[in-house]
DNA-binding CsgD family transcriptional regulator (Streptomyces canus), 892 residues
Amino acid sequence: MLWLEGPADSGKSHLLTLAAEEAGAAGALILNGRGGDGLSPLAPLLDAFAPLSVSGVNDPGFPLRSMRWIDDRLRGFAQVRPLLVVLDDVQHCDSHSLLTIRTLTSRLLDLPVLWLLAARSHLDVPAALTLRRDLIGERAARLELSPWESEDVQLLVRNLLGRRAGEAEPYLPFLGGLPGAVVHLCSLLAAEYGLSGDPRTGRDMVTEAVVTRRMEQLTPSARDLVLTASALGAGVGVRHLCQILGRDETSLLRPLREVLAAGLMRAEQESLAFTHPRVRDAVAATLPSPVRLSLRRRSVDVRLSDGTSPIFLATEMAEIAEPGDERALSVLEDAAREVAPTAPTTAAAHLRRAMSLSRTMPSRRMRLAARLVPLLRETGEIDEARSLACDVLQAPPDAATHAQVCLELVRQGYVFPVPQTDAHLRRAFHHDDVPPPVKDQLLLALMLRRLLAGEAEETVRAAEGGLAHTPSTHSLSDMTRHTLRSMHAGRRQRWADALKCSEAVPAKATELNSTDGSALPEVVVSIAWRAALLALTGAGQAAAELIESGLADAERSGRLTYLPLWRTARAGLLLDAGRPADAARELAAVMSGPRPPGASAAYEPAVACTRARTALHTGDDAELESCAAVADTYLAQDHPRLRGAGGWIALLTAECRNQVLTQDQLRAAAAHLRRGFLYTTCFGAGDVMLLVAAAIAAGHREVAAEAVAFAEERAQNNPGLPLFTAAAIHARGLFANNPGLLLDAAERHGDVRPLLQARALEDAGDNTAAVGGALPHYEKALSLYDAGGAERDRRRVRSKLRGLGARTLPVAGPVCSTPADTEWRGLTRSELGVVRLVAYGATNREAAQRLFVSPHTVNTHLRHAFEKLGVHSRAQLARLYAREVDTEAATA
């Protein structure tokens, strides 16, 4: 006896056929039978005798008489010649056949009879399991076939397809290493079956043919399990599968074991999964689309009933829902509400799909649109947000929805996409059905927007005074009140009061629920304003913590609208810290991003001012010219805030354009400075020094005197903020040409404002140059400019030092941003660093000390530089560098 076992397509039947051919050639008599579902008792054995046309075989009678008849026939044949009994698919044999096999194998042990029995692996038929155990116990040989190794499969494919073997590669991963499946695949490819696929559906016909054949080898119950699982997703739990099939776990064990043994699916830790995604796709393709959608919908309903969160079902529900599906709408709305605080892009996608499902439900669709508008604002899709807001305003489903859209439009910048803006606002403020918190937030948002844009400040201040006596209806409103009061204090130059009013803002922001939180413009503006105040008063570390937190939240959640605001704030902080080169890189990222809501009237001028101030230090002339063009545009406007910003940018770019400011420009810049802030950007305490210097240079000392008086009054009003005192002393020192005051100012600026400290030292040097005391002040100023990459300032001071006859060495690294100094005649970065030092007179040892390398390394770099530059002495090198690099830098 030989028991042959293996999965379907492992080659069992092929081996049985080969064995029968060998036995027949040796003279044995062959009897072939096969088990199958639905056959009558003993049919597999009786069918084996059919080819012999033995009398009586077609009417054997009852099973007991049939067993005796089969026994007699086998004995009779075996006495004539050796007998081979081949039975395939034993697992499908009926119980009478299995019992007969068990009985006859024992009775006929003394006769020349060889039994070849084949069954599939992982039997789940008790009688077949018993038969295998008993036969093996009686020393029946057992041969188990397993999937082939990859190398063997590749060899088989090459033997069957030859040079076309590569065509089989994409399909091999889901054949499970079964040789029968490989042979079938190769026959399909050799016949070029469906190689071009279905041009209408894009389906892979070869994959479907292979998988269909493997499905046909399953029992009906196992086939139903695979078909159902294919419609439910990549992984499905057994309990969930039982719920969909309407069966319990015990009844699912047999077909499940069959499916796992067939290698179509695998059991993972908590679910069942297909062995390859293409297997699942091919199986699912055999299901009619209505059936597939129905199964998926039933799966979603079951999981919802089991308490699965809509977050995990929304995407699937969006794919299978039909228009007007109320449950689908509820799932999508709930999911959008839950994910909006952390993933507004995903929430917006859910609401878009919900809107498409509610086309025949106008009121429902408008409410969904109202919820979608703020999400689009957060993700930077402003045009779509305004279009939807317009739809809602023209056909609002109710007063509360109308008021909510008005609030969102105010947050976006108060540019309503429909006529009669004031009428819409009055309706929102006075309708009885609008909740008081919405009215309160709308009024405060309107005031904040107008204050940021510099519109109707007196009206806003009066309204704020009235609000001080009304109770807060919402924590968001309470936080916005703090910010408004703080901004009013800043407008009056009462910065200590402004800082105190904003103290509660971070804590108030954390009290907001996830629906409000950091997503709302009022919150972002309030936090950014608080950070600006901290930076203004010298608390740079605390300001950085707020800015980095806001930036991280915007990047993590995908709120692209807020990225420019936080990056601009970070650039301002870097500039304060004396790092203009880093600030320039941050602003470059700002210019490539979307605008924040409400940016047109306030944010863009604030960015332009920061860009101009940064470019002034870095020496980026192209950026300065761009900012100068913006200044000309602003100065031509009637809006006081824009004119003020234009005057200030003109002041910053005057040196670049070799321009002397007019009195009108100076007055506009002075008015800008007195306002204290633009959007959420506070003007630096030391900015007044630039106004004084520009007014003196233009010959308008009366403007300079007013600026000095302003700085001194501001310092007097803010005695606890030392930066304002330092700025006042610096301004007075400039106006009075008093080096003592300038040095005092430099000391007071200290490490908190290194660029202001450097400028005060430079100014002190200018005032003492005539008497020979400028050198140490210039040298210290130069080191501060060098440290932060303030290239224009560095070149200016270096020129002053050369005018005094001093030998100055540049910084070790190539920090200059001029093209000639960073990419000159093919020198490497290391070689250029050495050349710059040597050109200014450094010895090899001095250069080595500055570069933190050995003198030998310096000598090597210098020798290579000589070869590239075609010079033969240090003097020639110095002249060439002065002519081609220093001259270009000086004219830049």
Q: What stands out?
A: The first strand starts at residue 2 and ends at 6.
